[in-house]
Amino acid sequence: MGEADLQQLVKGCLNNDRLSQKLLYKTFYGFTMGICLRYANNRYEASEIMNQGFFKVFKNLERYDSDKPFKAWLGRIMVNTCIDYYRSNLKAAYTDELEKAEHINDTDFADKNIKYNELLDMIGRLPRAYRTIFNLFAIEGYTHEEIGEMLNISIGTSKSNLHKAREKLKAMVLESERVPGYISKQANYNITPTNPTNTPNLSISFINQARKK
Questions:
Q1: Domain ranges, residue 15
Q2: Cα first-last separation, the chain
């Protein structure tokens, strides 16, 4: 869809045109679902979050600055909706039984060749607390200070959960090497990257480093 067509579609939504709203939803369904799947436990939950996000989009559309990319504005609303959903389930997320990952040396991963989508599948299987912080830090680019403010947790908790997320991801990588078809058997859904060209390098070395700050 060209920029002119998109702006016309946004204008129709501002006028509460149902057809325009339906088309906007359909056009960006894949993009927004991809974001929500990174944070949700399953596709049903992701759909619920996504629909909440679109409700906020239509409600606040008059605040959108047409001089800026609509997709970026939409994506930010979806991420914020995911964060709000996380906050509402914060107690449950931290009382889940979280397995302790065995310590693994970073050098064990120098020669591993894991595809982008396979890594995203692994991220989707992390416990909610670990997955949310890994997404916000490694993919969205927030600092631990910003994550702490968004989730009402300490900087230390954010750093600790990022470390645990990395360790669990490393364990999954080793298991995928040991058991053929491990990833496809364990994945509950496929996660499509929202914008692979602008997404940080989710390589094994990236998981090892996790953008330490």
A1: 1-89
A2: 39
